[in-house]
């Protein structure tokens, strides 16, 4: 059984920069954003229907809130989105001394805090002013914590199954890093590298963790998602996709046995698009069918734990 046989293009409308997929278990929908297209999408695989909310600025992430609605990272603001009214209200503004910054990837920790990082707005894909970003968290009381700065492109993040380790990617370091994590306080410490990208693998972008504690990393300009063991630093599997600019991934579907992968087409010319007509689409990898080959399955994502 080959990987190629298990990859299906499921959302065929292109995103400029598709990112941040989140599976919403109750609704059975996939939430994801188009960063520079300034849109938040919600796609239902059962009906193949997609709903969209437009944003005024670049939108780096959108995550569910336990009490309903969503929390988003838009421009340099954390915001609350009411999907029905399509209204967005500001919760907090960050990087106020850096007007050229924007939010990028974000994810909710097991306690309900939203972690999200920033970066400078790109001149063109991966070309930007370096060391302008930071990693932040938004807590239940709406207090924003800055964990560190000097980030190039804040990207993939997730937590170990025992909640004691936080995994993080600053893309242009070409590494996946780990920190000790205190779930009670949300503090991180003891930064270290767990994986260094091999030549030809691309740039590490978004990532997720499976039920076996392995990380799945989307490789921008690499046309693949790799599965790595963060305990040994070994790449276990490589899933090739028909597009180069793979951006992020999450598990979803029945039993969380499908891997959804977002992609981008921004910066591609007509010749590039002719070679990769599905660039910017969303793909589904049927993980359950290659479980015995080393595939994984995931688990539910977390929701932000505050009301307003």
From TrEMBL:
Catalytic activity, as annotated: D-glucono-1,5-lactone + H2O = D-gluconate + H(+)
Main location, first listed in the record: cytoplasm
Protein family: Belongs to the SMP-30/CGR1 family.
Cofactor: Mg(2+); Mn(2+); Zn(2+); Ca(2+)
UniProt KW keywords: Calcium, Cytoplasm, Hydrolase, Metal-binding, Zinc
Location relative to the cell: Cytoplasm
Catalytic residue list: 205 (proton donor/acceptor)
Source species: Oncorhynchus mykiss
Protein encoded by which gene: LOC110519912
E.C. designation(s): 3.1.1.17
Domain SMP-30/Gluconolactonase/LRE-like region: 17-264
PANTHER family: REGUCALCIN
GO BP: L-ascorbic acid biosynthetic process
One GO cellular component, as annotated: cytoplasm
Residues engaged in binding a divalent metal cation: 19, 155, 205
InterPro entries: 6-blade_b-propeller_TolB-like, Regucalcin, SGL, SMP-30
Name of this protein: Regucalcin
The record's free-text note on cofactor binding: Binds 1 divalent metal cation per subunit.
Binding-site list for substrate: 102, 104, 122
Pfam family, one: SGL
